[in-house]
Structure to design on (298 residues):
């Protein structure tokens, strides 16, 4: 299977800094976000592709493995580990498996967003062991990562993964947090468990802190001066936000209850207002601005 280079996906060089990678991701995520491209399958696939690339390149360890092994090094240490054997130091035909642990961990999870994602990695442990000429080490428990979008984590979703050719359905509860652990009892090889760590991809529009979300919207300078309304994205669709007359740039406004679900109720959504100056002025607009300047100086 051919894979696109993650650096090319984000449009950055291999020497790009963490800040450059984050900035490129946010710009592209806003451009291809499903809410802005309803019904556009190409945009949806591009959004997922961008998320996959960012999930790897924004993580120091994953990026190091990717730079060294390419797409075979996507899964971080600890993914696809066995409670009943097959750990670093096991005998694979006389070769110390610890020499290859990073590579194998990446190989097992080379399909999908992280270790798992709809139709993800399929691994036959018995074939792998016998093919290496070593003793058979049957893995009882299997660990992996399942990456979901911020919207999927917020609203909940149903995801499909494959383990040893078996299709499994995974329910992501609404309000799931990054790092949450899910256990599929008895669904692993030999009746072991499948242990999933949920990784929530960053969204180009929202920042999450505690139960509160933060977003930003552009406000035309005339709306800020005279008052009016602007459309604000929320996790449940766009809302209209009233802008008081005389609003200054950088002001934060709160939409109560539009944040992340929590045990004691949903948090709030804070909206940062960015003033947008007009571009090229018409002759009439220029005259009006000159009149305004004269009045303010007078």
């Amino acid at each position: 299977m051919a894979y696109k280079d993650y650096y090319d996906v984000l449009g950055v060089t291999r020497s790009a800094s963490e800040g450059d990678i984050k900035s490129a991701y946010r710009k592209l995520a806003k451009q291809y976000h499903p809410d802005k491209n309803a019904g556009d399958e190409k945009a949806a696939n591009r959004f997922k592709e961008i998320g996959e690339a960012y999930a790897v390149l924004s993580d120091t360890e994953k990026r190091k493995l990717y730079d060294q092994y390419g797409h075979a090094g996507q899964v971080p240490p600890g993914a696809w580990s066995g409670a009943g054997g097959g750990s670093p130091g096991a005998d694979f035909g006389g070769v110390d498996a610890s020499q290859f642990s990073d590579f194998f961990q990446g190989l097992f999870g080379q399909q999908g967003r992280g270790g798992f994602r709809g139709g993800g990695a399929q691994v036959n442990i018995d074939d792998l062991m016998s093919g290496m000429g070593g003793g058979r080490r049957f893995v009882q428990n299997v660990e992996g990562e399942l990456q979901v979008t911020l919207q999927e984590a917020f609203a909940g979703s149903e995801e499909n993964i494959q383990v040893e050719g078996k299709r499994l359905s995974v329910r992501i509860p609404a309000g799931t947090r990054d790092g949450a652990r899910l256990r599929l009892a008895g669904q692993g090889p030999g009746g072991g468990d499948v242990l999933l760590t949920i990784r929530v991809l960053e969204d180009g529009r929202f920042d999450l802190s505690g139960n509160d979300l933060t977003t930003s919207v552009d406000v035309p300078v005339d709306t800020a001066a005279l008052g009016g309304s602007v459309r604000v994205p929320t996790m449940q669709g766009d809302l209209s936000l009233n802008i008081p007359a005389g609003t200054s740039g950088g002001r934060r406004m709160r939409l109560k209850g539009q944040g992340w679900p929590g045990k004691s109720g949903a948090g709030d959504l804070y909206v940062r207002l960015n003033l947008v100056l007009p571009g090229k002025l018409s002759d009439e607009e220029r005259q009006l601005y000159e009149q305004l300047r004269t009045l303010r100086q007078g």
About this structure: DSSP finds nine helices and 13 strands in the chain. The chain has three domains: 1-58, 74-200, 207-297.
